[in-house]
Design goal:
It contains seven helices and eight strands, in the order αββααβαβββαβαβα. It is of the alpha/beta class.
């Protein structure tokens, strides 16, 4: 699936219109429902390949990926399969049973991780994940996301010395249906 086909697939399967309350607390007339593209193997595989390429290009020192629960977990898994890098799951809070871990998966203190995220608006979930990863002694400088809504997330992350590297910007996805997909080949 080329980039134009992937943008169109995300638009066709995940774009919803209406009145939505976003995690950031903002209201929006549109919503990109990540579960509608993350649960499709064809789209997930293509996104995993883009994540692997993004990590190789923008954070080549990464020894593993990390994805905040719940939405970024399939993306981290797809990126892991495509890149060969293991991944961590960043819980919203440490579980209160078993190992009581906030981070799930093995890692070594001082390793560099690349965060993976689905749709970024204000960057709130990523900022919480950055804090948890850094508290565990991991280095975080880069986050790769599927779609940047272009509503301040990149700036919020930059203030914490993390570069946001979107596969697509929301404006590109929203325009996807207005242009025919380029022929493959």
């Amino acid at each position: 699936m080329n980039d134009d086909e992937l943008k169109l697939a995300i638009r066709e399967h995940a774009y919803l219109e209406g009145d939505f309350l976003l995690r950031s607390g903002k209201r929006s007339k549109y919503y990109l429902d990540k579960y509608r593209f993350e649960t499709r193997p064809d789209i997930l595989a293509a996104v995993g390949e883009r994540i692997a390429r993004g990590v190789a290009e923008f954070e080549p020192e990464a020894t593993r990926l990390a994805g905040p629960e719940l939405g970024a977990v399939p993306l981290a898994a797809a990126g892991s399969l495509a890149s060969g890098l293991p991944f961590l799951i960043v819980r919203k809070a440490a579980k209160d049973y078993g190992t009581s871990n906030r981070l799930e998966g093995a890692y070594e203190h001082g390793e560099t991780v690349c965060l993976v995220e689905d749709v970024v608006t204000s960057g709130g979930a990523l900022l919480e994940a950055v804090e948890a990863l850094r508290d565990a002694g991991l280095t975080v400088r880069t986050a790769v996301c599927v779609v940047d809504r272009e509503e301040g997330g990149a700036d919020a992350l930059a203030r914490q010395a993390v570069r946001l590297r979107p596969i697509f910007r929301a404006s590109e996805v929203l325009e996807a249906s207005k242009r025919p997909a380029k022929p493959h080949g």
